[in-house]
Design brief:
The complex is a heterodimer.
Chain A: H1 6-26, H2 32-35, H3 42-64
Helix pairs in contact in A: 1-3
Chain B: H1 8-29, H2 35-40, H3 47-58, H4 61-74, H5 80-83, H6 87-103, H7 109-116, H8 119-152, H9 156-205, H10 207-220, H11 242-245, H12 257-273, H13 277-284, H14 289-305, H15 307-310, H16 312-321, H17 337-348, H18 354-362, H19 368-380, H20 385-395, H21 404-412, H22 417-453, H23 459-486, H24 488-502, H25 505-514, H26 520-540, E1 541-543, E2 563-565, H27 568-593, H28 625-642
Parallel strand pairs in B: 1-2
Helix pairs in contact in B: 1-9, 1-22, 3-9, 3-13, 3-14, 4-16, 6-12, 6-14, 6-28, 7-8, 8-9, 8-22, 8-23, 8-24, 9-10, 9-16, 9-22, 9-23, 10-16, 12-27, 14-28, 17-18, 17-20, 19-20, 22-23, 23-24, 24-26, 25-26, 25-27, 26-27
Classes of the chains: A mainly alpha, B mainly alpha.
Chain lengths: 71, 644
């Protein structure tokens, strides 16, 4: 099919990762993490993981050589 | 259960995902021009994509919820559904069967049956399959809407219709490619959404060694967590094979090793993974034969590791519940709304044995001390209705195993991560529906409409019919969702009947693909005979603790009493074994007694002995399907040994 699936996966996870990083940064040190994630700022950490995954997918799409969809 | 309050960040993640799946549908729209594009993705998708979709198509949310429930109830032995009940069959499909499915140019599994046997076998298979898919997607959507209602307090009808509409839009626009792409997206969503929950749970409980220590105590006294009244060896929850090899009484599943290996590992597993069009369709969309054969092989890698994502949470939950300082309990079954009023009345004006009366009102098992304490507190100081309701719910001791995964999500996810986990859950429900609908529209259009109603029309006609079938399929699914919501018992019967039809199916394929002498009459009558055998087997057997009826045994009176199995799972595995054997023998003998209708030439590409072997020599050694298959099988054995 004409659309390389790595584009949507890459863009979406980069976006969601970025959202989590920003939110994690905003809420750093607040008590929402004490009651749930054992005091770890999981949003910040996991946001970075998602961002890295998303960027890797995008790199794969670029190196893979398909042009982004121009819809 | 109090509805969870979502923050803006959670809605943002949910919205982002929804926009992306709809966006994928629209982006693919311009590539979908013919019926082959719509139903088969134009056979153009790379193997890693079809491989992940192959795995994800089966990974509905019901599996996520159900497998963590199994993990809690039966421990690591639940991994047999993966390591025994999937991997060998997936490798067999890739190495031996894919050449016939892909090479015959059949567009669906029923169409292969038509080429190999005749129209009768195709008709039987396509009709049952078509009905089964819409029911399956209905059940999945009902579960989704119910979940959104309980968890987030959203309206059931609105949730059901909106989620269905999203699925409709992207399947209608992009066809099978849309479904496959969103399945891959969903796969990453589930892995990345639930991994942190498992990580936090594991860290909280203190790692695998701590889990083993906790579960050793639980296994010796399961009744303390209402996990049944038997007692087991300390490793019953944390060893996959030792408790099973020690016999049905030694493991919480109540199964014996033969039932696991033959019933689950051979009959049920090969019957599902090698013949179900829903999964095989993903491989058929691959761009060439070697990509098609690599599809199930690629899928085995995540499949092998998935127990750590879906079964482990259930085990963690039990270990947490056994640690009093963690403040966690296995979620109790929710009290039915209608049952509250009489129970509250009995607490307010106690006469006679309060505990017994309230238990009867609620039709659940309760903690005696908690109920009596509640009544005393009310006598001392009149409690409000809400306080009594909460007290009653807290006193319920029956576990709601299906609620475990959500209880962990609630416990460990702060806003943000919560949105991610819920989106993953929502994604898997929706892609479950999309998978079923795409399989339904293909089988309907090619195997029923084109074969029996309107043959020899131009391609665009079938393309339009496929789109029409998508709309109708989704509307019927919604109908089935309401049906499942209102008549859950009738739905159990429907699922039971499908089990009867599926159990013998692999015998037909095995003989058809590897024995040229198998005839259409033999296959058709063998399949019917196998299905009848499952009905009969079910009618004269029962599992311990079940009353005759939907659970079986209703005809046992005529046969001198029901045969009793130690668990429903054992009954199920043995049913499949009997149905398979009956179908195999009947097909064999009827084929020998009937005349062949297909010549050797016609069977070329459809039967093993009549088909030129595929030359894998031009591929590098480590990329050949047989070599890959052996490596993956060894990896699977190693996993079994680690958790022996």
């Amino acid at each position: 099919m004409g659309l390389d699936i790595r584009w949507p996966i890459g863009i979406m996870f980069s976006l969601v990762g970025l959202l989590l990083v920003v939110f994690g940064g905003m809420t750093s040190g607040t008590d929402i993490y004490q009651n749930t994630s054992l005091g770890i700022n999981i949003n910040l950490i996991w946001g970075v993981v998602l961002l890295v995954f998303g960027v890797l997918m995008l790199l794969g799409a670029i190196v893979g050589g398909k042009k982004p969809p121009t819809a | 259960m109090q509805p969870i309050h979502l923050a803006w960040i959670d809605y943002a993640i949910l919205l982002a995902y929804t926009c992306f799946v709809i966006g994928i549908g629209f982006a693919l729209r311009r590539y979908v021009k013919s019926s082959s594009d719509f139903f088969l993705s134009g056979r153009s998708i790379p193997a890693w994509v079809t491989g992940l979709a192959f795995m994800a198509a089966n990974l509905g949310a019901l599996e996520l919820v159900g497998m963590s429930a199994n993990g809690a109830q039966y421990g690591i032995a639940s991994a047999h559904f993966y390591w025994v009940g999937a991997i060998p069959a997936m490798i067999f499909l890739a190495v031996f069967m894919m050449p016939f499915y892909y090479g015959s140019k059949a567009r669906s599994v029923p169409e292969y049956l038509n080429l190999r046997f005749d129209g009768r076998v195709r008709c039987l298979n396509s009709l049952t399959f078509a009905v089964m898919t819409v029911f399956a997607s209905g059940i999945s959507m009902d579960a989704l809407a119910r979940l959104l209602h309980i968890l987030l307090g959203w309206n059931y009808d609105i949730s059901l219709w909106i989620c269905s509409a999203v699925v409709l839009v992207y399947v209608l626009k992009g066809g099978l490619t849309s479904a496959i792409y969103t399945e891959v997206l969903q796969f990453f969503m589930i892995v990345l959404g639930f991994a942190p929950v498992v990580f936090l749970g594991l860290k909280d409980v203190g790692g695998w060694d701590a889990i083993k220590a906790k579960l050793a105590i639980v296994a010796q006294h399961p009744a303390t967590l209402s996990l049944g009244d038997k007692t087991f060896q300390p490793d019953a929850w944390t060893s996959a094979w030792k408790p099973v090899l020690a016999g049905p009484a030694a493991n919480p599943m109540g199964v014996d090793a033969f039932a696991v290996v033959f019933g689950l590992g051979f009959v049920l597993s090969f019957g599902y993974w090698c013949t179900d069009f829903l999964v095989v369709q993903r491989a058929m969309a691959a761009k060439d034969m070697s990509a098609a054969r690599r599809t199930p092989l690629i899928a085995t890698v995540p499949k092998m590791l998935f127990p750590f994502l879906v079964i482990l949470p259930g085990i963690i939950a039990v270990a947490l519940a056994a640690s009093p300082n963690k403040g966690y309990r296995l979620p109790p079954i929710a009290i039915k709304e209608a049952n509250y009023a009489p129970a509250i009345a009995d607490i307010k004006t106690p006469t006679g044995d309060v505990f017994e009366k309230v238990s009867k009102d609620l039709a659940l098992h309760l903690d005696k001390a908690k109920v009596e304490a509640l009544a005393q507190r009310n006598a001392a100081k009149n409690l409000s209705d809400d306080q009594i309701r909460n007290g009653l719910q807290d006193a319920v001791t029956d576990n709601d195993y299906n609620g475990i995964i959500l209880s962990l999500v609630k416990k460990y996810c702060p806003p943000g991560l919560l949105g991610l986990a819920l989106t993953a859950l929502l994604a898997s429900f929706m892609s479950g529906m999309a998978g079923n609908v795409t399989a339904f529209n293909t089988v309907w259009t090619y195997d029923l409409y084109q074969a029996y109603i309107a043959p020899n029309k131009p391609d665009q006609h079938y393309f339009r019919m496929g789109q029409f079938a998508t709309v109708v399929g989704i509307i019927i699914s919604i109908g089935c969702a309401y049906f499942a919501n209102h008549y859950s018992n009738a739905m159990n019967v429907v699922q039971l009947v499908f089990g009867f039809v599926n159990a013998p199916l692999f015998a037909t394929f095995l003989l058809g693909m590897f024995w040229a002498r198998t005839t259409g009459t033999g296959a058709f009558l063998g399949l019917l005979g196998g299905t009848l055998t499952s009905c009969l087997f079910h009618a004269i057997t029962l599992a311990t603790g079940n009353a005759p009826g939907v659970k079986g045994g209703y005809l046992a009176g005529y046969f001198g009493g029901a045969h009793i199995f130690p668990s429903e799972m054992a009954q199920n595995f043995w049913l499949a074994s009997f149905a398979f054997t009956a179908c195999f023998l009947l097909t064999l003998f009827i084929s020998l007694a009937s005349k062949r209708t297909k010549t050797d030439e016609e069977l070329k590409g459809l039967v093993y002995s009549m088909t030129p072997k595929i030359k894998d020599q031009d591929q590098p050694f480590f990329m050949r399907p047989a070599v890959l298959g052996i490596i993956l099988l060894i990896a699977c054995v190693v996993l079994n040994i680690i958790f022996f």
